[in-house]
Specification:
This protein has 3 helices and 4 strands; from the N terminus they run βαβββαα. By secondary structure, the chain is of the alpha+beta class. It has one domain. The chain has a 4-stranded antiparallel sheet with strand order 2-3-1-4, sandwiched between helices. Helix 2 runs antiparallel to helix 3. The chain is globular and about 45 Å long.
Length: about 120
């Protein structure tokens, strides 16, 4: 497994295989392509096998993906405190699931405590 930023087109092609292999495509979180800062529609992903030689796939450090997911989770927690409804709790649980998959598939990454969401 490897972590990457991927284009929307690549996400369409790989998402099912990624999920079946225990990975993910975090479609709700847009990222900027490192070489094209004006492009903000790429996705964080945990993908099976090895990174292909493909311009639509940019290998990205796992700790950077963890940081992005955790930052978004903290933002959702703040929103949940302001607007306590199940929508934010569901979003937090979804991010916890992605973080759990990432830690399970990439054990060399530092483990961060999972949030208590309910």
């Amino acid at each position: 497994m490897y972590t990457a930023l991927i284009s929307p087109r690549y996400a369409d092609r790989i998402e099912t295989a990624a999920r079946e292999a225990g990975g993910f495509v975090a479609r709700g979180l847009m990222a900027r392509h490192p070489a094209q800062p004006d492009t903000a529609n790429w996705f964080y992903a945990l993908l099976p096998d090895q990174a292909p030689e493909d311009p639509e796939v940019v290998p990205y450090p796992a700790d950077a993906v963890i940081h992005a997911l955790e930052a978004e989770r903290e933002r959702y927690r703040a929103m949940a405190r302001q607007h306590p409804d199940t929508l934010w709790q569901e979003a937090i649980r979804a991010l916890d699931d992605l973080l759990g998959r990432l830690h399970q598939q990439a054990p060399e990454c530092p483990r961060h405590p999972m949030a208590q969401t309910a």
